[in-house]
Amino acid sequence: MNDSRLLDEMVGRAARKLESEGGVASLSKSFVDRFVSLTSELLDDDLNARVQRVFNETDAESLDPFGVEIDTVRWSLALIAYFYRFYFRAEVSGIEELPSGRMLLVANHSGLLPIDAFAISAALALDANPPRFARNTVDKLVAKMPFITMWYSRLGQILGTPENGRRLLERENALVSFPEGMAAVLKPFSTRYQLQPFGSGFMRLALQTNTPIVPVAVIGAEEQYISISDLAPLARLVGLPALPVVPQIFLGFPFPLPTKYRLYFGKPMTFSGNPNDDNEVIEAKVREVRSAIQSMLNRGLRERKAIFW
C-alpha cells in the first residue's frame, strides 16, 4: 500500500510538472503573440506579416542551419522596432537601392553595445521593400555570454568566421559587416565618425562569393554613449576587450542617449578579382569602400541640424 501511494505521488508530481511546463510554454507563446500584436498596432504595421514575408512562408526553424527560432525573431523585432521608431526616431535614405539576393552591408561601427547593428537590421526588416532579414557577425567575446549567445543564436546571428559568412551568402542572405573591428569600439568621442582602418576579410569574402557590397553610414550611434577614456588595464583584468569611461553611466543614466538615427544606404558596389590576391591588391578595393562610407558620413553630418532631432 505504501509503495502504491508512493508511486501515485511520483506519477502525480510528474504529471503536474509536465502540465506546468506546457502551461509555461503556452503562456510564453501567448505573451509573444500579444506583445507583437500590441506593437503592430502602435506602429500601424503588421510585424507578423513582415516576418512571414521575410522567411517566405517557409519553416525557417527546420531550414536554417544557424538556428533561427521564429518566435524569438517576432518578439525581438517588436522590441527593436519600438526603439527604432520612437526612441531613436530613425530616418533612412537610399534603402531602395538594395539589391535582391545576397549582399554584404559594410558599415561604420561604435560602442560595446551593437545598437547600430540592430538599427541596420530594423531598417532592412521595416523599411526595405520587400523586407529583408539581416545577419550580423558576432565577436568571439559575445559568444561566451550565456544569455546573449542564446538570444543571438535564436535570431540566426553568427560567429564572425569566413566559413560562416560564405555559407550565409551562398544561401542569398544579407550579411552585415563592421570591418573597423575593435578599433571602432576603442576610439574616443573626439574621433567620432572618423573611420578607423578596415580589415580586408569582407572584401575577400565578397570576391569569393561574387557578392555586391552595400556601403552603409550610420549617424547617431557615436553620440549615444560618450566615451572619454578607456580603462585598458582594468579591462584586461576582467577579460574584456575594452572598458570605456562613459560619464552618463556614472551619473545614473545607463541607457543610450536618445540621439536621432540617420541611416544612409549607398549604391551597391561590385568587385572582381581573385580573393587570394596580394594584400596590396585587396586593400586598394577596401579603400574604395571605406572612402564611400566616409563620404556618406561627411555628407550626412553636414546635413544634420542637431544630434537629438
Polypeptide structure, described:
With 309 residues, the chain is of the alpha/beta class. It folds into two domains: 2-63; 88-303, Glycerol-3-phosphate (1)-acyltransferase. It has helices spanning 2-43, 47-54, 60-63, 70-87, 115-126, 146-154, 162-170, 182-186, 201-209, 232-238, 247-250, 279-303; strands at residues 91-93, 103-107, 134-138, 158-159, 174-177, 213-219, 229-230, 244-245, 262-265. The longest helix is centred in the first third of the chain and has 42 residues, at 2-43. The chain starts with a helix and ends in a 6-residue tail after the last helix.
Note the main attributes of this structure.
309 residues, alpha/beta, 2 domains, two-stranded antiparallel ribbon
Write the layout of secondary structure elements.
Blueprint: H1 2-43, H2 47-54, H3 60-63, H4 70-87, E1 91-93, E2 103-107, H5 115-126, E3 134-138, H6 146-154, E4 158-159, H7 162-170, E5 174-177, H8 182-186, H9 201-209, E6 213-219, E7 229-230, H10 232-238, E8 244-245, H11 247-250, E9 262-265, H12 279-303
Parallel strand pairs: 1-9, 2-5, 2-6, 3-4, 3-5
Antiparallel strand pairs: 6-9, 7-8
Helix pairs in contact: 1-4, 4-5, 7-9
